[in-house]
Amino acid sequence: MSSDEELRRRKYEEALEIKSLRRIISAYLNYPEAAEEDVRRYERSFRKLPMAHKALLSHLPLKYQKLRRCISKNSFFIFEMLKAFEPPVDMSQDDESCDHLDDGSCGHAHLEDRDPCSCESASVSGRAHSKTSGEVLTGHEEKNENCSEPESGNLAVSLEGQKETHKGCCDPLTVSDKDMSSGPHESPDYLESMPHFHVPLVDVDKVRCVIRNIVRDWAAEGQKERDQCYKPILEELTRHFPERSKESPPTCLVPGAGLGRLALEISCLGFISQGNEFSYYMMICSSFILNQTQDVGEWTIHPWIHSNCNSLSDADQLRAASIPDIHPAGAGITEGFSMCGGDFVEVYNDPSQVGAWDAVVTCFFLDTAHNIVEYIEIISKILKDGGVWINLGPLLYHFADMYGQEDEMSIELCLEDVKKVATHYGFELELEKTIETTYTTNPRAMMQNHYFSAFWTMRKKSSVATSIQESMDE
């Protein structure tokens, strides 16, 4: 490729990055208006009631006003988060190089802003929606190039490493202990210069899903779910690595790290832990919590307000959650904790990653693959001989329902076949059981989705990496 072609390619990819990131930021900015429209819809329905029925439900207008106050609290958190975000590209640039894609999805083809909420076929507001190209999801709700390490004693996530494309940059966790008590900082230039536009409601639903994911990872109310999903993994890591030297800590990769809590907990056990996450929705939020938090319970959100269905009481629906439940910078992380933004396959299917990790932890991640065989192959490739792979999660294949999208591959295997593939790539099963779990579930709701998640520990047999690399080279 000539230098001119390479320059055009880079400019085009940056334009894709800008367009996609604008859409994601716009989804966050559209949150208050979309939530207010829901409340107005509730009010319109109330006004249609006969007078006798209105008298029976005279408390509802007050509830709607309380909903607005809750929306305001959530919006405050979101806007403070966006003000702290430092985009990896110049958001004021003209993106006309992608304007030929008239459906507005240009960026999504490049930066699939996968949502953490793929388990449900309808949005939390009850509006049915379907998965469309570029709006694929990585979570289970209702989902290494230029690596750098943190400064000693610090813990912040930065997205500054993602200068060219969202394909893989490992960024230092360098949270400072700066005092933010002087009040909120000014709106950054990128928010002032960036053109604001409306986005599909499905994009705003992704923001609501992130809010519920915050509870899972960073609120006291999410402790039960973390105990279901994270505690077994942490116990297995402790069992397999009883001696964790401070001078030479074992290394652990966490693909699909979401908002970062599991990767942080692993770091606190004494591992050099790296979280890998593809979704900018997630990374913007995790960066804010890890970077900007100064105190336990510093922020208040209302995660359950967006659905009137299956509530035991209005108080349950409107209840607040204080976040975070721990101060990340004071949690006792191991030096070397990092976050790596980018697609797992593109980042870790690299010669520099062969045999680089003592452990790989996948939690609600395997079924986010287009090709689960490729995921397993790469996990085997990047583990050291004798390395440990710990997995927990269902097989809710996220591309299974991409009807009409001819270019969307989706390989959907049963659990038995998944284990056969793992055996082919040199894994030996050491522990297997089923664990009942939830995912971003409202613990006080009348309806809750439960998974009977597969949990296993597999060990990579010796001399597997070499044979895998040779087969890939053929």
From TrEMBL:
It holds the Pfam family CARME. SUPFAM superfamilies: S-adenosyl-L-methionine-dependent methyltransferases. One of its GO terms (molecular function) is carnosine N-methyltransferase activity. SMART domains: N2227. GO terms for biological process: methylation. It is an enzyme of class 2 (transferase). It comes from the Eukaryota. Its EC number is 2.1.1.22. Keywords: Methyltransferase, S-adenosyl-L-methionine, Transferase. The keyword Transcription does not apply. Residues 121-153 are annotated as: Disordered. Belongs to the carnosine N-methyltransferase family. This is carnosine N-methyltransferase. It comes from Tagetes erecta.
